[in-house]
Amino acid sequence: MHEDADVTGADAKHALGRQLNFAAKSARGYLEQHLAAAGASFAVWTALFALKTKGPLIQRELAGLLNVEGPTLTRHLARMEAEGLVERHRTSADRRAALVRLTDTGEAMYARLSGIVAASGDIVLKGFTPGETEEFLRYLTRVIQNIGVATPHTGLRRRTVVSHTGGVRPRAAPVSDTAATTGRTRRA
User: Fold this and answer.
1) For bias kind Low complexity, which ranges apply (predicted)?
2) Could you give all domains of the chain from N- to C-terminal order, each with its CATH number?
3) Mean pLDDT per 10-residue run, the chain (188 residues)?
């Protein structure tokens, strides 16, 4: 059992970050282990999921949904394109923009990985009733939304995160001291 499992009251607020971190790393590690056994990665899964559920997307839109920088996504897509999972085509409206879509091979990989993700979710949520699972996901969504609310005294600015449902939400990120005095931000 994890060291913070029985924490209550005020101590629970102090344990929150550790618990969230431990749960996220444990769940993602478990999923990544099973995705790797199927010849995929978490990055591949999230891109396939976004393209399957949202349809073909402009590369910039896909980067926003996945909460990754453009160059990072470009590298992932190059590998996925080489594996025949996706195709990129320039759009007629903006020749600089690439439209990304799943191929038949990508659709088949999505179907295969979808079962692995569902089975991993069953393990992670073992012992939860369907109602508890829905409530848990609502709580996680609320945490994500709460973090996205920036206030002047927190030293945080808004950035983008993706909720468990795939929706894009604001995310808070540290603002440098320079930003507080000049209005300019730099990456933290």
Assistant:
1) 178-188
2) 10-126 (1.10.10.10), 136-188 (no CATH)
3) 59 85 94 95 96 94 90 94 96 80 98 96 96 95 78 43 47 40 40
